[in-house]
Design brief:
- This protein has about 550 residues and is mainly beta.
- It contains no helices and 40 strands.
- Strand 6 and strand 7 form a beta hairpin.
- The radius of gyration is 26 Å and the shape is elongated.
- The two termini are about 15 Å apart.
């Protein structure tokens, strides 16, 4: 299903962004089609991308992304593409995928794609996962397959040899899913080296320009946050940059690249006056400290740096950004990002006052809920609360500080169901008394798929936190924002779906994937800039300027 959205402009666009790196290309013998397969930039749980495109005419300039034709067919597979073969007489395409699991097994799948209907079927029987290294049609009925051995246990030659198998079917258009038995895949052992990329059994013709191998360096990672400035410019943080500024028309003004030690940026908060912004770095990777940089918005220069002795997060209030301590060891699951509120909101661990020389405050007796081993707040069973920070205007919003303990008010448990543990997640304030927030259940008893929720809760005085509505989702929510003009909440999921909910009732208004040139993107950040106007950051480092229909 396609989300009702019109993409008006793409910032940081580039050729084949949806494929990440390591693109394998296979051209049809007729020269009319090209198959592209690659690595998803973030190794999506939904698999590896494969697209079928019309081959560009000879001499066509394919250097600009807009010059590339839209995908005719698109799917994701459980393993990366190893080989592809177009049927000699029918509009069919066979795809072979696979990889080594890092321990013993060479796993993969055989997929039959109908180019006329877009239907695809996995042909190996349930439980059969064999890596396919090469494919070739001997005739209209016989598919020749080169399979990796099942594993390399006491068989190092498995990396250099494989099994040659002929699969014969009277009509490949009618082959049922999961109909190829494991017993049919026994064949003679033949040389089968594993070069990159894997060729077909017969050497193919040179691929068209569209299918040229990816020779570039590392591709951009996912967009982490998007901030619209009053002048229409856009600030973004991402895996590959600490902070970047773009004009609304698509010109990059400046970029602060990711630091080798700090990585990219997680969250950015522009300060009043528009002269600078605080940025929370993704690193250091050992996780026992936090680094925050103040970046000038005119030229991207670093103005100030703050390092905390323990893990911390950047939160926002009407007075400007604040720091809050985080319990060590919880990683991204401990983080919560609430927007548009008068008060800062964060996940808090209930415990006794500090007994150490507290790293968060000069007062050794403060109740700061720090994460040091000497304090009695550690352990997986510690109760997590939703805590707000009362507003206190200091007159110096550029200062980045921890709020005093007396300003922090624990309201109610983060999880509204007793005995459940809910992770952190994105959220927004609605009016002065309500929150719409997203979370995922982690109680040790729930198997896949993920059991997540989008919910509305009151934070009014005396509230117990019982949701007024709960909308379940089966993937992790990655970003959330609200359009106050239409009372619509937009939520992105790790599967790539975008969901629109009615903020008052939680009713589903729309859901689906966002397509760019026929290919679904995976949104990782969402920001509403006006009535029906949305910015979407993607897992491949692009920003979509879009209009909801």
């Amino acid at each position: 299903m396609i989300f009702p959205l019109t993409v008006d402009r793409i910032l940081a666009d580039r050729s084949r962004a949806e494929f990440g790196r390591s693109v394998l290309t296979v051209a049809a013998p007729s020269g009319t089609h090209v198959v592209l397969g690659g690595h998803d930039p973030q190794g999506s749980a939904d698999g590896y991308p494969i697209g079928v495109y019309a081959a560009p005419p000879p001499g066509a300039d394919t250097s600009a992304p807009q010059a590339h034709p839209p995908a005719l067919q698109w799917l994701r597979t459980g393993w990366r593409l190893r080989a592809a073969a177009f049927h000699p007489t029918q509009p069919l395409l066979v795809l072979g995928t696979g990889s080594y699991d890092g321990g013993y097994f060479f796993e993969g799948e055989l997929v039959l794609l109908d180019l006329a209907t877009g239907e695809h079927r996995h042909l190996f029987e349930e439980g059969c996962r064999r890596e396919v290294r090469a494919l070739e049609w001997a005739d209209a009925h016989t598919l020749q397959i080169l399979l990796a051995p099942y594993d390399d246990w006491e068989d190092r030659a498995a990396w250099r040899e494989g099994h040659r198998v002929d699969l014969v079917r009277p009509d490949w258009r009618t082959v049922p899913a999961h109909s190829v038995r494991d017993t049919e895949l026994n064949g003679p052992r033949v040389p089968a080296a594993l070069p990159e990329p894997i060729p077909t059994l017969a050497a193919p013709e040179p691929a068209p320009a569209l299918a040229a191998p990816d020779k570039e360096g590392p591709r951009p990672g996912e967009i982490r946050s998007l901030t619209a400035l009053p002048d229409g410019d856009i600030l973004l943080t991402a895996d590959h940059v600490l902070l970047e500024r773009w004009s609304a028309r698509g010109q990059r003004r400046w970029s602060v690249p990711a630091d080798p030690d700090l990585g990219g940026g997680r969250t950015a908060v522009a300060l009043p006056g528009g002269h600078s912004a605080w940025v929370e770095a993704l690193g250091p990777w050992h996780g026992d400290s936090g680094t925050f940089l103040r970046i000038g918005l005119s030229d991207g220069t670093e103005r100030e740096r703050r390092t905390t002795p323990g893990p911390a997060a950047l939160v926002t209030t009407s007075e400007g950004p604040l720091l809050v301590p985080m319990c060590a060891g919880y990683g991204e699951q401990a983080r919560s990002r609430f927007r548009h509120g008068l008060h800062a909101i964060f996940r808090d661990i209930a415990g006794s006052p500090c007994v150490c020389d507290c790293p968060w405050d000069d007062d050794a007796d403060c109740d700061c809920r720090c994460g040091c081993p000497a304090c009695a707040v550690q352990g997986p069973d510690a109760e997590v609360w939703l805590t707000t920070v009362d507003t206190h205007h200091t007159g110096r919003p550029a200062d980045l500080a921890f709020p005093a303990a007396e300003r922090c008010r624990r309201l109610f448990p983060w999880s509204w169901e007793p005995g459940e543990t809910h992770s952190g997640g994105p959220g927004v304030s609605v009016g002065e008394t309500d929150l719409v927030m997203a979370t995922v259940r982690h109680d040790g008893r729930v198997a896949l798929p993920v059991q997540g929720f989008v919910t509305r809760r009151s934070v009014a005085e005396g509230s117990t936190g019982t949701p007024s509505w709960v909308f379940p989702v089966d993937r992790t929510p990655t970003a959330l924002d609200i359009d106050p003009a239409t009372d619509t909440v937009y939520v992105t999921l790790s599967s790539g779906e975008l969901i629109a909910l009615e903020a008052t009732t939680g009713a589903l208004l729309a859901r689906g994937h966002v397509l760019v040139r026929g290919v679904p993107v995976i949104p990782t950040a969402v920001t509403v800039t006006g009535p029906g106007r949305i910015l979407l950051g993607t897992s491949d480092g692009r920003v979509l300027v879009a209009t909801a229909r």
